[in-house]
Amino acid sequence: MLEKLIVFVEEYSMEATLEQLLPKTLGDVEFQVIRFQCKDDLLKKAPERLAGYASWLPDGWRILVLVDRDDDDCNTLKTKLEQMATDAGLLTKTVAGKGERFQVVNRIAVEELEAWFFGDWAAVQAVYPRVPTTIPDRAGFRDPDAIAGGTWEAMERVLKRAGYFSTGLRKLELARKVAPHMVPERNVSRSFQAFACAIEAALA
Questions:
Q1: Is residue 6 within 8 Å of 64, Cβ to Cβ?
Q2: What is the reported pLDDT for 109?
Q3: pLDDT by residue (tens digit) across 29-57?
Q4: What are the residue ranges spanned by the domains of the chain?
Q5: SS3 breakdown of the chain: % helix, strand, coil, rounded to 5?
Q6: 3-class DSSP state for residue 135?
């Protein structure tokens, strides 16, 4: 039974989002979000952090490492994350056998956190009601994880055209406002669904 979930994230807006989302998926389970300065900082410091946990991690605790893909190859990045956990002496969900209790699960937000917001457009509309309701039906937006030209840049363009963020997208503000309105069950982003599955596996 899951007693506590520790989540490694690379930046402020993901931290702010998870602070709102995790209680919706974890219920009363305790969680701690550990934020690094950036993706490079996470990849540099996570091995030492993981090794530190390996010597004392209780059976009821799990670690979730969550990073953006950005321009990285997804498989290469996942392999790197898996190797970090293995080198630290921790068992990952990918390596664990069926029914075996894993300690670490690695997940990649493809391409960036904003894909999760495109995946739950009703949550964005709840905060920014002038955005078009038809965005999820338009070519180029139907797959939130495959939006061309950068996901946060696309979000900025849509919001600017609707009269918001005229001086540029403030990612932390967006996260803090949209995340409380998100409903995990309706999110169509594949990377969000993979994240949700990781949470379900940790709870099992």
A1: yes
A2: 84
A3: 999 999 999 999 999 999 999 999 999 99
A4: 4-112+186-203, 114-181
A5: 50, 15, 35
A6: helix
